[in-house]
């Protein structure tokens, strides 16, 4: 049996009965005693003096796409471009580094940040992509900007009908512009494509996540990521704790294999099934009750409600928890209706709404009544605040309403939605506490009545994030809990009132998973 006594003057435990301590005794990866009891019982244990100004529980990203994030490491990053011209030049420079025939992919372009915020077209992309396929994802992942070669190889013409839950944008003469929204993106899957093995990229991604204080994640991506994580785990190379979701299209496969949420061990577990109810704000495909300002449409329903209900019940009856993406107020209403049907069958399924960005006030109490977790990403608020004002305006909605949900006794779990946002959880903590961007704007925070305290934000990134996938054995530094902890360079609680902007710049010095050192800054 291995026994380690961890010492530090400021250890925040996350345990309401004893929030602060100065010692943790860990045996075989589990905290067995704290404080004076730990020191007394750990007289013969190996002692580790933890560095930095503060020690706290390891953080859990409740919503992250690690395959996307890993693949993005090999792509061009277009997030910071401020014009179409700047975007095209970055694409051109990246294309020149690629071998012949390799796709231009990902990109994470964001036309809402361009000086002229107009979506691009295939003709512009043709100028810099040469004879290779180009299919560049928007920052929110809900729109593809494709070149003419991609459309041609996929057989997308003026006569191609819009798929259910998707849209092929067309110009005034009816020709496809190259913009493919929601399920229309899947039309490109018929094009043959060779990709490098995922595992090496995931290993690099794992290092990055550990370096920012994440000790566990709920991964939203597909079967390739599941296979790579299973291989890492079998080889003893998985240092993160991973709860692995199943995508909608793989639900029948999961059922046939006998997957049930919670199966696995302390390191790698079967998670929920992920469904989509609508699109995203940046792509103007969030499903709203009223049209966006300046637009005729109310967004896109990713699947008809009858299908959503059928799929949700199938998953729940098969022993799989359910998490459903909903951005717009109408999408949230419909998902809650589907969850009401689950509860009517007295199924104890864990239910989450992913994002819950814009919710009718009348629907907020339904989260509590149906025991639905609001799985939210604080950095979405600070990234979207100007866009939300522009296309949603002052209509009466609970928008990025963490305080409203908490006051209604709704469980709130936090994550990043990386690579849509940066996976660094301290960026999310800063956004939750200040509702400001990194530059300190807007002064006082956007809709500041929705701010939460630092303790509440950390609770959402630790205890509730774990609970939202059925884990109560990790998230606190208390007896009986897994010893996942991070040592950081500043005392966040001392900064909360005086200089909360510095929370965002927190540097992780060490990350421990199950009492083992998983990352140390050199």
Automatic annotation (TrEMBL):
Domain Amidohydrolase, chain residue ranges per copy: 47-516
CDD domains reported for this sequence: YtcJ_like
InterPro entries: Amidohydro_3, Metal-dep_hydrolase_composite, Metal_Hydrolase, YtcJ-like
Protein name (database record): Amidohydrolase
Species this chain originates from: Terrabacter terrae
């Amino acid at each position: 049996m291995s026994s380690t006594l961890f010492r530090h003057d400021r250890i925040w435990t996350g345990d309401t009965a004893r929030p602060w301590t100065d010692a943790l005794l860990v045996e075989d990866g589990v905290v067995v005693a704290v404080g004076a009891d730990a020191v007394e019982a750990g007289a013969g244990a190996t002692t580790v003096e933890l560095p930095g100004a503060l020690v706290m529980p390891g953080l859990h990203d409740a919503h992250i796409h690690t395959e996307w994030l890993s693949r993005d490491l090999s792509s061009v990053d277009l997030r910071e471009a401020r014009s179409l011209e700047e975007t095209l030049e970055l694409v051109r420079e990246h294309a020149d580094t690629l071998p012949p025939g390799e796709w231009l992919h990902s990109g994470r372009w964001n036309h809402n940040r361009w000086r002229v915020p107009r979506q691009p077209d295939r003709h512009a992309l043709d100028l810099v992509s040469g004879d290779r396929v180009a299919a560049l994802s928007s920052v929110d992942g809900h729109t593809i900007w494709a070149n003419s070669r991609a459309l041609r190889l996929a057989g997308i013409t003026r006569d191609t009908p819009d798929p259910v839950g998707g849209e092929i944008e067309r110009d005034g003469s009816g020709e496809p512009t190259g913009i493919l929204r929601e399920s229309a993106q899947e039309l490109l899957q018929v094009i043959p494509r060779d990709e490098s093995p995922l595992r090496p990229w995931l290993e690099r991604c794992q290092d990055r996540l550990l370096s920012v204080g994440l000790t566990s994640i709920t991964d939203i991506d597909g079967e390739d990521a599941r296979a790579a994580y299973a291989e890492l785990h079998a080889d003893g190379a998985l240092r993160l704790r991973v709860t692995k979701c199943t995508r909608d299209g793989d639900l029948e496969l999961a059922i046939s294999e006998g997957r049930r949420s919670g199966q696995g061990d302390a390191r790698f577990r079967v998670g929920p099934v992920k469904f989509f109810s609508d699109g995203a704000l940046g792509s103007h495909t969030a499903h709203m009750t009223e049209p966006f300002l300046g637009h005729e449409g109310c967004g896109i329903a990713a699947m008809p409600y009858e299908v959503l209900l059928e799929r949700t019940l199938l998953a729940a009856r098969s022993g799989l928890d359910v998490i459903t993406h909903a951005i717009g107020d109408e999408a949230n209403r419909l998902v809650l209706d589907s969850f009401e049907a689950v509860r009517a069958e007295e199924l104890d399924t864990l239910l989450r709404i992913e994002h819950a960005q814009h919710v009718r006030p009348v629907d907020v109490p339904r989260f509590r009544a149906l025991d639905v977790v609001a799985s939210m990403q604080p950095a979405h608020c600070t990234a979207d605040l100007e866009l939300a004002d522009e296309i949603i305006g002052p209509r009466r909605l609970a928008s990025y309403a963490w305080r409203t949900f908490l006051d209604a006794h709704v469980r709130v779990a936090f994550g990043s939605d990386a690579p849509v946002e940066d996976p660094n959880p301290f960026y999310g903590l800063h956004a939750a506490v200040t509702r400001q961007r990194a530059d300190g704007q807007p002064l006082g925070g956007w809709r500041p009545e929705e701010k939460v305290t630092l303790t509440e934000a950390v609770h959402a990134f630790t205890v509730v994030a774990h609970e939202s996938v059925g884990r109560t054995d990790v998230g606190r530094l208390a007896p009986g809990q897994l010893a996942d902890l991070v040592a950081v360079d500043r005392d966040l609680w001392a900064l909360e009132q005086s200089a909360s902007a510095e929370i965002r710049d927190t540097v992780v010095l060490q990350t421990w998973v199950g009492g083992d050192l998983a990352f140390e800054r050199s």
